[in-house]
Amino acid sequence: MINLSLSGIPGKKCGTIIFTAEELSNCRDIATMQFCANKLDKKDFFGKSDPFLVFYRSNEDGTFTICHKTEVIKNNLNPVWQSFTIPVRALCNGDYDRTVKVDVYDWDRDGSHDFIGEFTTSYRELSRGQSQFNVYEVLNPKKKGKKKKYINSGTVRLVSVSCNPSQPTSLHYMSPYQMNAYAMALKAVGEIIQDYDSDKLFPAYGFGAKLPPDGKISHAFPLNFNSENPNCVGIEGVLEAYFQSLRTVQLYGPTNFAPVINQVARSAAEVTDGSQYFVLLMITDGVISDMAQTKEAVVNAASLPMSVIIVGVGPAEFDAMEELDGDEVRVSSRGRFAERDIVQFVPFRDYIDRSGNQVLSMARLAKDVLAEIPDQLLSFMKSRGIEPRPPLPPSPAPLHLQPLYNLNIWKGRSFQPWLKSRT
């Protein structure tokens, strides 16, 4: 907070201006809500009341800022307001437990609106939906102090609430008519890489969400919520687990890449004899909150048997992703440069039609997704003096793809799946 004195008139104090600031969260959830009221106080002498609601976001310094006003319902003590849509960041700056204050007013033409009462809630409470917990007493402190038998000035009830990703603007939106951007990328790219897996069992994880029942933030949770066996059967199984997770968890920032890169790196560090090679596939909308930590993770991972493929979805700029792709300038952290380039970035929008519903060329997508993996794999093997395995003996059965080395394939992003498979 900064206090500055105003000046301009010689010899007179012109007052003080106060600046306060708060860092915006990365939360991009959108909520749609509807409210109604029952038995509000009558404020107009010749009529009932013309009620409307005013929503306030609480600030870090204890003050409140108006973030939404409903329309006015004329001459009605039991109003039903229209539903409205508001960014969760505007309502509570992404903090689900932060206080949201709501005032109820009776509208007056001259602007001197009469205060009916108030109540407080939080986005976490609201997100639970219609229930007895989302019926609020409207209290007027002045009336409560004067009248011994005062109970309340009416009640306000939450009629409905729907949260991102049920909004069409979300890249995670689950439309009944088509796949969302993440599902399309997962299916298209997953069907390419699953040919390198023998059992088609994929341990699939998500990160960047608050998990039920306590709302704990996680950056690595099994999409099927089975920590003992996170395997999903094929890419279709991963998709099913992904959609089920969207219905269960609350998407939540920040978007941190480093934790999942480091987790894959720990697995890769346990198998450095050339028998396995790890590929981390990250699906992202371009937002990254821990760039410095991610660069350090990439530099550390460059000395291990692993590569990172980043697939960007949506219309955003992907400057940060391009920066991680070390084709021109090797990634560095704290003065250390990556031993080799292990990151390949592919913008998914370059491979789909204008409607965003169909991949234009699976062959071209496959070529670009896997373009750098062979050289990256060979560069690690050669640098460690690891020789290829001897050729397999002839088999009477039809031969499918026989990779030179085993690949462990991983997938991930801030609440996007990441998975590992064994060849």
TrEMBL record:
It comes from the Eukaryota. GO terms for cellular component: plasma membrane. Pfam families: C2, Copine. GO terms for biological process: cellular response to calcium ion. Residues 1-136 form the C2 domain. The keyword Metal-binding applies. One of its GO terms (molecular function) is calcium-dependent phospholipid binding. SMART domains: C2, VWA. Keywords: Calcium, Metal-binding, Repeat. Belongs to the copine family. This is C2 domain-containing protein.
